[in-house]
Write a structure and sequence with these properties.
The chain has helices at 119-126, 130-139, 166-169; strands at 2-7, 10-15, 19-23, 32-35, 38-43, 46-49, 58-78, 83-103, 106-109. It is mainly β. The strands form two sheets. Strands 3, 4, 7, 8 and 9 form a five-stranded antiparallel β-sheet that branches. A four-stranded antiparallel β-sheet has the order 2-1-5-6, with no helix packed on it.
């Protein structure tokens, strides 16, 4: 089952379990978000189109994090005039995990668990930045932090090189 929802002036096709990045929404990580602006519901060949909204349809999601998006550079130049200006912008965005879609007498729920680890922490783990990971995990509440990995094994000490003597060389 899928739905087409409208939020932030854009339309998104979502299914239960999808990870969705939308314009900034209010709420704390772990909060439930409900979308009532469902434009269309589909289940295989059966499609229900709203006029303009589907009556009684609702999409529920869990807010994972609110962050800043990718950098956009704005560069202006007038040639041969010595005029150059550089500006930039980072749009605020919210990351959501769609947990259920309900409407037209049918419901589709996602059975997984929502991991609230922010993208910065996942990126730091992928790049093996231990000091950044420790800093981000300390800032996050203990209940939301991912389980700690097992302590790495220490390498065995190197054997001392055997000293060569003149008798052994002959």
């Amino acid at each position: 089952m899928y739905a087409v929802i409208k939020t932030g002036g854009k339309q998104y096709r979502v299914q239960a379990g999808d990870l969705l990045v939308v314009e900034k929404l209010d709420g704390e990580p772990g909060a439930e978000v409900a979308f009532g602006d469902v434009l269309m519901l589909g289940d295989g060949e059966a499609v229900t189109v709203g006029a303009p909204l589907v009556d009684g349809a609702k999409v529920s999601a869990t807010l994972i994090e609110t962050r800043k998006g990718e950098k956009v550079k704005i560069f202006k130049k007038t040639r041969r005039q010595g005029y150059r200006r550089t500006r930039g912008h980072r749009q605020s965005e919210t990351v959501l995990r769609v947990t259920s879609i309900a409407g037209v007498g049918k419901t589709d729920k996602w059975d997984g668990t929502v991991n609230l680890a922010p993208k910065a922490l996942l990126d730091a783990r992928a790049r093996n930045l231990k000091n950044v990971v420790a800093e981000l995990e300390a800032a996050a509440p203990a209940a939301e932090a991912a389980p700690a990995k097992a302590a790495p094994k220490k390498a065995a000490p190197k054997k001392a090189a055997a000293k060569k003597t003149d008798d052994a060389a002959e």
